[in-house]
Amino acid sequence: MLTQLADKFKNALILKGGVLLRLLNCPRSTQDLDYVWVRSKKRKLLGEEIQKALEEIEGLEVTDVQANSRGVFVEVQERAGGQKAKIEVQVVAATRLPSKPLSSAPLTQPYALPTRIVATMDLAEAFSHKIAETLERSLVRDLYDLAQLEPLSPFDPDALKERLSRLEIGRSKARKVEIAEAANRLVEKAERLSREKIEAELSGQIPADQLPGLDLLIRAAVSRIARRMESIK
Question: Domains in the chain and their CATH numbers?
Answer without folding.
Answer: 2-121 (3.10.450.620), 124-230 (no CATH)
